[in-house]
User: What shape does this take?
Amino acid sequence: MAEIIGSVCTSHVPAIGGALARNQQQTPYWKPFFDGYVKVREWLAKDPPDVVVIIHNDHGLNFFLDKMPTFAVGAAEVYHNADEGWGIPTLAPARGCVDLSWQIVEKAVEDEFDITTCQEALIDHAVELPLALLWPEGRRAGKWPVEIVPICVNTVLAPYPSPRRCYHFGQSLRRAIDAWDDERRVLVIGSGGLSHQLDGERAGHMNKGFDQRFMKSLVDDPKWIMQYSNDELVKQVGTQGIELLSWVVARGVMDATPVREYHSNYHVPISNTATGLQVLEPA
Ligand code: DHB
Ligand code: FE
Assistant: This one.
């Protein structure tokens, strides 16, 4: 049986890619953000995962406003990174864990989730930057030490899946991973958020109080978020802050066992975004 070592939820601002390329991690602007990841890397080094299931949202590389799946599961041998318009350097492709992808696809459909299966997919900053933050040596070597299963949640074109639906989807992912007849160690990553709004009258909107309440709820009251509709959530966290739904899916994956918070960090702002980081491990 596969083993889930825990979850890492993190923001994914494109500017992080620029800072990495310019080696600015220790400048005053970036230090409070990058220093948050040191403890995560120590945690990973103790007992490294083999496979990463990464929940994220696509930013126009794979799906545009004409076609928008609610949940899409990658089932490709390899995922290439492509330029999505932010001018950040292209990072190494990631190898897919095709076996786990199909395990997840089969289970999701059995559990009545109408997913889209992608045997070809590109990956953008929402997948590459978390990998680069967790495995800087992989970024430099141009080769990641893990295989991935990328799982995309629509946070781009309303209507979005509800927090309840996202949580339940995460629980289905967990059933698939637990039933995977393989000894490999699996890390779950939730990529996106926290509060930010990039356009419109409220551009620049952030909400530290809500973000921190949300992060706290994930430790011991993960269903707290379900009291909110997505319209209410967008009011609280901004039109792009709704990316926090990826954290809700990741928390659903961790639901099967009690968890404790190993580490967290919160720093405002990076670019236009309030950035959060949280590691949960089985208690
Ligand atoms: C920013 C944040 C994002 O999540 C994103 O996908 C693009 C830009 C930003 O803060 O600039
Ligand atoms: Fe984003």
Q: What stands out?
A: The mean pLDDT is 97. The first strand starts at residue 3 and ends at 10. The longest helix spans residues 163-178.
